[in-house]
Each structure stands twice: as structure tokens, then as C-alpha cells.
Specification:
Layout (H helix, E strand, L loop, with lengths): L6 E12 L7 E8 L2 E5 L6 H17 L12 H8 L5 E4 L3 E8 L4 E9 L2 E14 L5 E5 L5 H11 L2
Antiparallel strand pairs: 1-2, 1-7, 2-3, 3-4, 5-6, 6-7, 7-8
Length: about 160
């Protein structure tokens, strides 16, 4: 991450599903900066910070559906450290083929089509409100948020 790069949106407790046969979703952080977007599933952040950030995010998004928010205690330095882990993914905004929001009965999703090494990947992202942890961790309830500001930001940055 470059020194003049800033985090524009940081969402925790995001359910990311890759649209391919037999793929299972997984929990991650979705981070959007001026130049890239990242999916961080392995973080060095403490679990206490994580649970507090999830609670604050749910309360904030229930009051206002604007997803352009950031969390105290996680900045560019932590992101750069987390991106050193190969299990975390990052994409340049130029790698975004399309981004579009979609409303469902149960919540809202962001559909992303990305290219990596000449291959297209399709993802669906949704923000989780509540989880079940047994027998495996799975989302139970999702939030309805307005993904349009993120889509507009991505499209605006791509055209520069």
C-alpha cells in the first residue's frame, strides 16, 4: 500500500461467495482504497477489536445504509501487513470488470466481476448481521445496505 493511498470503505463481517460450482462462501473484510479493493480473511487484528467493530458496524448500518465507513484501529499500516498474507486477495481498481448492486428479499448484495491473471472471477458480497456457529459458521441474517456509493466510487476511479 502506498503512502498517499487512503481507505475509503472498510466493511467487516462480509460474506463473500465466488460464483462457481461447489464453492462455499467465507467471511472476510472488504476494504476499498483509492487504488485497490481487498478481501482480507486472515487478519492480525485482535478478536476483541473484531467483535467491537462488527457491533459498531451493525448499529451504524441500521441507522444509515451508507457503506462508506471506516473503523478506528485499522488503517493503511494494518492493511499492508494483512496483505502480506497470500490467503488475502487484492485487486487493482483496473481489474474490476463490473460492479453492480442487487436487492434481495433477505438483504442486498454487491456483484463484482474481477480479472486476475487473465481469468474472470465473479463474487457476491453481502454484509452479515447475525451468525450461527455450530456445526459450521454460517450467516443467518443479512443487512440491507446501499451499495451504490461503492459502485460509483469504483466506476469513477476506473475511468481516471
Amino acid at each position: 500500500m502506498e503512502s498517499d493511498e487512503r481507505i475509503k470503505a472498510h466493511l467487516v463481517s462480509v460474506w463473500k461467495v465466488e460464483k462457481k460450482l461447489f464453492s462455499r462462501g467465507k467471511e472476510c473484510m472488504f476494504i476499498l482504497t483509492d487504488r485497490r479493493l481487498a478481501f482480507v480473511s486472515k487478519t492480525e487484528a485482535k478478536s476483541r477489536w473484531w467483535s467491537a467493530a462488527v457491533e459498531r458496524q451493525v448499529v451504524t448500518l441500521l441507522k444509515s445504509d451508507d457503506p462508506l465507513l471506516t473503523h478506528d484501529g485499522y488503517d493503511g499500516k494494518e492493511l499492508a501487513h494483512d496483505l502480506e498474507n497470500k490467503k488475502n486477495e487484492e485487486y487493482s481498481l483496473d481489474d474490476v470488470i463490473s460492479a453492480e448492486p442487487e436487492e434481495k428479499k433477505w438483504g442486498s448484495i454487491l456483484k463484482l466481476k474481477l480479472k486476475k491473471d487473465d481469468k474472470e472471477k465473479n463474487y457476491q458480497l453481502s454484509v452479515v448481521k447475525d451468525w450461527v456457529t455450530y456445526p459450521v459458521k454460517d450467516p443467518v441474517k443479512f443487512l440491507k445496505i446501499n451499495w451504490s456509493p461503492i459502485v460509483e466510487f469504483i466506476n469513477k476511479q476506473r475511468t481516471k
